[in-house]
Amino acid sequence: MSGIVGSVSAKTNIIPILLNGLKSLEYRGYDSAGLSYIKDGKLIINKVKGRVKDLENNIEKGTYSNIGIAHTRWATHGKVNETNAHPHQVGKITIVHNGIIENCNKLKHKLEDKGYIFKSESDTEIASGLLDYYYKKYQNIDKTIQKFIKKVDGSYAICMLVQDYPDTIYVIKKDSPLIIGKGQDVNYIASDVPAILKYTKKYYILEDYEYGKITNNDITIYDKEGNIINKELKEYQGSDLTSDKGIYEHYMLKEIMEQSTTIRQTINPYINTLEDLLKLPDLTKYTRIDIIACGTAMHAGLVAKYLFEEYTNTKCEVFLASEYRYQNNFLTEKVLSIFISQSGETADTLAALKKVKEAKCDTLGIVNVKESSIARALNKVLYTEAGTEIAVASTKAYTAQVALLSVLALSHAYRKQIFKEEKILKILNEFKNIDSILKPILENTKTYEKIATEIYTQHDVFYIGRGLDYALAMEGSLKLKEISYIHSEAYAAGELKHGTISLITKDTPVFSSATNKHINAKTISNLKEVISRGANCYLITDEDIKDDSFKQIIKIQKVSMFLKPLLVMIPYQLIAYYTAKLKGCDIDKPRNLAKSVTVE
Ligand code: F6R
Fold first, then answer.
1. Which of 181, 170, 158 is nearest to 234 (CA)?
2. Which residue has the least CA distance to atom 11 on ligand 1?
3. Which of 91, 278, 420, 471 could crosslink 132 through cysteines, CB 3.0-4.6 Å?
4. CA angle, 271 then 277 then 282, to 5°
């Protein structure tokens, strides 16, 4: 989603800093870009519909400035065009903004009554107008910002230039991430750490309702009453910063191919001995586990639900964060709420987490990005070690989440003495051999490419399964639709004939996995029903099935249920990838999607 970069320096040109920062945030998804800087005392704004490269081409070579703010916009209010792109200038105030101003209509009418005229459809222009109005009224920046915080509903990370103070960048934050990077005679602002890592690893994290003033040699942060706050200066510890595509054509392919490494890195601390397994949190005091997440992360939660309920006899519910935050959740101190997020910045997941914390109930997180907003708000966090995921469609983060949750469920089963030690050790041994187990599946690319040639012209594709295989069907279906734009749906296999089977016609592709010997026969009967109606069925299974009526059977190794999701998902990911490639889609940046969904 939208990205913010800002910089103010004593002697370096900040234009390349702004452009490099925007480039490093590109993977998050955006549709227009812009910046504003001060040159010879004059404020200049440059914005384009399109890519950061287009913005760069629009700026005269050698342009020099010591202070500026920049933005990539993922449209929320108003169409994708240059007028709606940021920065927005009203009077003496110029801002870039991430988030949504929820009461912008009311504010707009009030400002229009006072004579303000707005050019764009953007809520950011209204925010800029409101700041200008208070600035003119109070002639005082602190009072202006404090009043703004009181009057505005919604979420905002704002970076602001004020005409009368050409040496200072102002920042304001609520419910949308913002950090301030500290350098030597130069300081930085960004919505996300990668934007500044080329220049500094030291940064402050702004919390909700805080604001700051940044010059080339000073960073001062205030609470909403205007009291100065002494903040801890953080130092980025992560690696994997110069993530590039290597030999691969797309980040998505690279990220799929590195999954045995990322899974191993994630679970390694917990799988070598039985004692290692006990390093994971003790969940025995809870009678119910709630899992809350969005999209693919929620699908990882569905796998965990299956494992917790089937193998640890613990009730587990999975919720979409966007629903959870507005419903009655029946929380007690016996409920553990687990939040799953790759980015650690998803607005709905963060809001749901705040709700659980307000109820004073325990939280645990499975998060990929260290020091992200969600990671910081949790009581306890277990990190997935998937490294930076650049492709918008999540692959290696999902399998890392699934692997970590599987090991967590296994440790719970061990603590509850549901499994004998030998059985646990056998499963741990399989996890230790994950590289060799996944290798043939990752290398089977010819099969996936062939399947892609058979489905890429289709309009509708179905994914079905029972139990764990249904949870996997949901993620398989999402992968295909988000990157190939082919309509696809996932159904519980037994549900098809209650309506959806009417959509099956000649050659409709239907994918399924059958990995549970107790119910495989039922799933296969459901597949036979669609084959009878002309469907082309593709089956991923660990059983020896010889049946010519299937278009393709993808055989995977027999392993414990705790590992099966990992084996099934890789073919689903690669089939989606090769299908999107045949269709010529922008695989790493699918239309309309953003990597980090920081608005509701
Ligand atoms: C799909 C995808 C999304 C994310 C969802 C949650 O491939 O990546 O569905 O899983 O937006 O994002 P995080 O995990 O960052 O909270």
1. 181
2. 295
3. 91
4. 155
DSSP string, 265-305: HHHGGGSSSHHHHTTSPP-TT-SEEEEEE-HHHHHHHHHHH
Helix 259-267, helix 564-582: angle, nearest 10: 150
**pLDDT at residue number 238:** 67
Q: For ligand 1, atom 8, name the residue with the nearest CA.
A: 394
Domains of the chain: 3-235 (3.60.20.10), 243-432 (3.40.50.10490), 443-600 (3.40.50.10490)
Task: Provide the whole-model pTM.
Answer: 0.89
Q: Indicate if the alpha-carbon torsion angle 13, 15, 20, 25 is positive or negative.
A: positive
pLDDT (tens digit per residue) in 357-384: 999 999 999 999 988 999 999 999 999 9
By the 10 Å C-beta count (0-12 exposed, 13-18 middle, 19+ buried), 115 is classed as: exposed
Residue among 298, 353, 378, 394 whose CB has most ligand 1 atoms within 8 A, to mutate: 394
Q: Which residue has the tokens 């278009």?
A: 551
State in Å: Cα 521 to ligand 1 middle.
33
User: If you measure from the C-alpha of residue 478 to the centroid of ligand 1, how many angstroms do you get, rounded to a whole number?
Assistant: 11
Of the residues 192, 250, 294, which should be mutated to test ligand 1's pocket, given the most ligand atoms within 8 Å of the CB?
Answer: 294
Residue 389's SS3 state is coil
Q: Which of 395, 146, 85, 432 is nearest to 255 (CA)?
A: 395
The neighbouring-strand residues paired with 43 are 38
Q: How far is CA 105 from CA 2, 118, 128, 130, 323, in A?
A: 21, 12, 14, 12, 25
The per-residue DSSP string of 166-199 comes to TT-EEEEEESS--EEEE-SSEEEEESSGGGTTTT
Tokens for 151, please give them: 């009057």
